[in-house]
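Incident log, structure service

09:12 report received: a user says their structure output differs between two submissions of the same chain.
09:20 pulled the input from the user's history:
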Amino acid sequence: PPLLKFIDALTNWYIRLNRRRAKGEHGRAEAEDSLRVLFAVIYQFNGLMAPFTPFFAETVYQRLRPYIVGNEGVVAQSVHFQDYPRPCAEYADEGIQRAFARLQVVVERVRMMRDQRNLPLKTPLRTVTVVSTDPSLLEDLQSLRSYIVDELNVRDLVLSCDEAAYPVTLR
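09:34 re-ran on a clean worker, output below:
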């Protein structure tokens, strides 16, 4: 289940949100960085999946193998001849993880509200307002503003800490 949850997060969040970046709309360097990260993630994930889906993992590995640069040109003949992947603590950034988790909550809640009101995602909204008394939440959302606007098909995202200005009721 954790591996399936990861696949869902990778395909429904990372790949979808970085599609334009990977295609080169933000420049060649950004595209190369995005694709390198995706390659590294798929490569490491494939090593994790090898004990559970041996034939599928081997097929993926053989497709990735021509692009792998090993130590001194040595690349294992099979995914099953490699060490099990280890976590790299230097790649983990708690601030980015927290900000992205907050983005996901906002996007999912707005989608839920759209569904309740029968507003399809293709219909652009004029404004979405996020009200919170937590300034760090608003800063995190501000740093990811472009993703939220694109994902929700919204013209303007308003971030406010003033609950009195909006008719907020807590249930």
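09:41 both user submissions now match this output. Likely a transient worker issue. Closing.
09:42 reviewer note: The mean pLDDT is 90. The CA atoms of residues 65 and 75 lie 8 Å apart.
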